[in-house]
Amino acid sequence: MFTGIIEDKGRVTAIQKDDKSMQLTIATPKIVSDANLGDSIAVNGVCLTITHFTNELMTVDVMPETVKATTIHTLKLGDLVNLERAMSANGRFGGHIVSGHVDGVGTIRSKKPVSNAVYIDIELPKELVENCIPKGSITIDGTSLTLFKVTDQSVTVSLIPHTYDETILGRKNVGDKVNIETDMLGKYVLHHLRRTENQSNITIDFLRQNGF
């Protein structure tokens, strides 16, 4: 489990690929300073497992389903990646509940500076937009952000200077793909409502009509 608060930007130093899977080696002295074999690590929002590490490098395996469902397969040597270690029980919970299980991929459609912030519009598949609400939480390439606009096809987030500088989102350009994880609690509620819609008088339309 993660919080979406990025701890470090690591650099990809080696990539091994076969037909369906990958292995990445990432330079990140900060993250490996207290690493253990088998630790979970979020790489651009994707929960992976540390299989080897040194004082400066860590290696993670990427299974076929993750290669297909995320942007991990687009990484190149030298690319920076957002990194977060699994949440500790005695730490501050600064973001929101993040599983590291990416729901899908979005496409950046615009970036616009507004005062001290940068607004980013991201086009999403319809099934992901349905899980988003204004002022709700979303994870973009592992970064916990707040949605301030939601349309039928896209969402908009705002980056403060710290987030812009300390994550890879500041380096993303229009047309780039990003990993998306929508709010976990909202997904569970929506899934439950859909499963019980034909068994109860309380439907999604009923809730919408009554202000929910």
Main sheet: strand order: 1-2-5-4-3-6
Oligomer description = single chain
State the secondary-structure class: alpha+beta
Strand content: 35-45%
CATH architecture assignment of the largest domain: Beta Barrel
Catalytic activity: 2 6,7-dimethyl-8-(1-D-ribityl)lumazine + H(+) = 5-amino-6-(D-ribitylamino)uracil + riboflavin
Pfam family, one: Lum_binding
Organism: Lysinibacillus antri
Keywords: Repeat, Riboflavin biosynthesis, Transferase
How would you describe this structure in keywords?
212 residues, alpha+beta, Elongation Factor Tu (Ef-tu), domain 3, 2 domains, 6-stranded antiparallel β-barrel, globular, repeat, riboflavin synthase activity, EC 2.5.1.9, transferase, ATP_synth_asu-like_sf
Describe what is shown at a glance:
With 212 residues, this protein is of the alpha+beta class. The protein has helices spanning 29-32, 64-69, 126-129, 161-166, 184-196, 204-209; strands spanning 8-17, 22-27, 40-43, 46-53, 57-62, 80-85, 104-114, 117-123, 137-140, 143-150, 154-159, 177-182. A six-stranded antiparallel beta barrel has the order 1-2-5-4-3-6.
Task: Lay out the secondary structure.
Elements: E1 8-17, E2 22-27, H1 29-32, E3 40-43, E4 46-53, E5 57-62, H2 64-69, E6 80-85, E7 104-114, E8 117-123, H3 126-129, E9 137-140, E10 143-150, E11 154-159, H4 161-166, E12 177-182, H5 184-196, H6 204-209
Antiparallel strand pairs: 1-2, 1-6, 2-5, 3-4, 3-6, 4-5, 7-8, 7-12, 8-11, 9-10, 9-12, 10-11
